[in-house]
Design brief:
single chain, 29% strand, globular
Amino acid sequence: MSQSIHKYLKSKPTPIIDENTITFVWKGRSAPLLIGDFTGWDEDHPIVMEKTEAGIWTYQHTFLPDSYIEYSFFKKDEESLLDPYNPQQTPNGIGGYNNYFFIPEYKPTNLGRKKRQIAHGRVTCHELATEPFISGEERTVHLYQPPVTEAVPLVVVWDGQDYLFRLHLNNIVDNLIHLGRIQPIALAFVDHAEQELRTVEYACSEAALVFLMSEVIPLANKELNLIDINANPGAFGVLGASMGGLMALYTGARIPGVFGKVLSQSGAFSWGNFDMVVFDLLQQGEVRPIKFWLDVGVYDLAGILVSNQRMQRMLNQRGYPLTYREYHAGHNFPAWRDDIWRGLEAIFGAKI
């Protein structure tokens, strides 16, 4: 087997993909440790690769069909290592890169590509004063006006710079509108703070909601052709992933008369054994007119997958309109990009 792997490495990339059975390979005198979506990125419990022959180390794992997986190698007390035989790399969201692969049945969406032959919305950039609500002196907000003349609902997007520049959500919306798969919507991409402050702002922050309602919404009403939210209570939407997914749920729970449509991707609803206040807000009191989309990867961080399953059960028990989906990927923007169109169709599907 080692001779075939040596030969394989001369002309083909790793890992070795045989339908949904994957063989990770390392070539060298010793092998680093292996972590990824399938290990929960837990450096305390990594995969130890097996030496199969001189200079060859392997680990084999069977994944679910149509899986998208990110992984990395590392050595204790050292920086992570990329797979030298896998050219497929993607930003990991914290300043580095991961390698990735996907099972042949996995189909990345092409909706994020800008297509010349269709009408495109207009994206503008704005700077808003933040004091005394959130960190910094100014915060960037990008606004997307769809290519239509009628007034439309707004969707606020937490982690706006990631959804705009990494997911190309404006292109996804352009294409969905062109195909008649969603009603036209406008977008307000609200940038997040630096990583250490993002957690504070997105951990169910009332101050962040004050900034949203006192600065972002007035700007959007001024610059975009929006429907009258007073005449259409709950018609606006809110979207986010991970901590942003938590903040999206919190926004809807706190201001359902404005944000009655919530799209949460891999929402971080619990930290360890501590549930965030969204559980209490949605479990206690009357059921509000909120429509939910929740999605999460089966290879997501263990705590996030479990808390999303708990949130699904609770929302169903309370009778909230909910679409819940588990897909075969982990906690990353490519997975959220490839699933968000489903959420947009579920919440803003074109009226026939």
